[in-house]
């Protein structure tokens, strides 16, 4: 039986390349693609894949929050982060969100295949370079070294912060998240208070620095 996979990356050329390579494997079947985290969550719910190859930074909803939502709804789905970011913050937050693997985009394709096979067999797979970074930073002591958006804000507040940073209006955010405008205004006030940042420009810079979104158009 083929392994049913969803590809999630905001760069179409990246998804097309991965699809071409993965579908050459006898037991891999690409059942859907997504260009943002929110679509990925929806597709995972609709198609119930065996595995999602997930970028960490995507528009609308980043890969970390998308992973958290997918795993909360279906813990059986395996998720591998395929990212350009090697920072310990990205790695640890993806693993805490429920990902079973984390590899870098500059890896050889055979490493991705090995990672997929490993997590399907029940193992956690980290690129050798990631392992080295984590060991050097001694993150396995389970200490939060620096306060970050992931530690300071709730899941919903991070979601709202990303959408604010991407230039969405309060009304647009409310419609996206199916809540009232007043609720979003309250979230925004709480975010500003927690972070001690009191301008949209400041929130945007913070969100980009923390990896919730990018400066790309």
Written overview of the protein:
This protein is an alpha/beta fold. The protein folds into two domains: 3-141, Response regulator (Rossmann fold, 3-Layer(aba) Sandwich), CATH 3.40.50.2300; 149-209, Arc Repressor Mutant, subunit A. Helices cover 52% and strands 13% of the residues. The chain has eleven helices and six strands. The chain has helices at 12-22, 37-47, 63-73, 88-97, 109-120, 128-137, 149-152, 155-165, 170-177, 181-195, 200-209, and strands spanning 3-8, 28-34, 51-54, 78-83, 101-104, 125-126. A six-stranded parallel beta sheet has the order 2-1-3-4-5-6, sandwiched between helices. α8 crosses α10 and α8 (155-165) packs across α11. The protein starts with a strand and ends in an 8-residue tail after the last helix.
Query: The biggest beta sheet, please?
Result: 6 strands, parallel
Radius of gyration: 17 Å
Would you identify the regions where 5 or more consecutive residues have pLDDT less than 50?
none
Percentage of β-strand residues: 5-15%
Please give the CATH class of the largest domain: Alpha Beta
What is the 3D shape?
Answer: globular
Overall mean pLDDT stands at 90
Number of strands: 6
Instruction: Sketch the topology as an H/E string, one letter per element.
Output: EHEHEHEHEHEHHHHHH
Give the spatial strand order of the biggest sheet: 2-1-3-4-5-6
In total, the number of domains comes to 2
